[in-house]
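Run log, item B.
One chain of 189 residues. Sequence copied directly from the ordering sheet:
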Amino acid sequence: MLIYLHGFRSSPSSFKARLLGERLRELGRENEFACPQLPVSPRAAIDLIESGFSPGPGDTLIGSSLGACYATWLAERHGCRAVLLNPATRPASGLAKYLGPQTQFHDPSQSFELLPSHLDELASLQVQAITRPERYLLIAATGDDLLDWREMVAFYPGARQIVIEGSDHGLSDFAEYMDAVLGFADSRA
């Protein structure tokens, strides 16, 4: 199973999630793909993934930005593989400036509030260091205007890493890297 975990203010309508879903449909593998709408509460997001999908060693989590933080925590806990797309490595401190009312990127009519308790939940999910780098694929863009690619690279030592010169936080050129993502997901690392 491939489980896509979107980022903060994102949704299953994200460009990367839709592209992956389309590619897997083309390959006749649409039943292997899931991309749930994650709740704003990090603890509730983790509970949703664990109870709804029970990820394990045969599964791959594909996390984008904040979703990559969740993917890392779940990979460490359940032994699955994780693909990390411009991961937020310290999201509790990074999201502090967004406390208060927010809207989703893909549906501005959907609003929510980021609370201090959500930052506390994020801090409790913070992985200090990965234990099995062979289970991780990092894709980091040097042109990410929100997160520092050097922190991403340093956070995942020994993992397979693709550093893209340029690009952006949303990885607008993600289509070029989908084969690498799917190849890694299909590996037995």
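Observations after the first pass:
- The longest strand covers residues 136-141.
- The helical segments are 15-26, 42-53, 66-78, 91-94, 116-124, 149-155, 178-186.
Flagged for discussion on Thursday.
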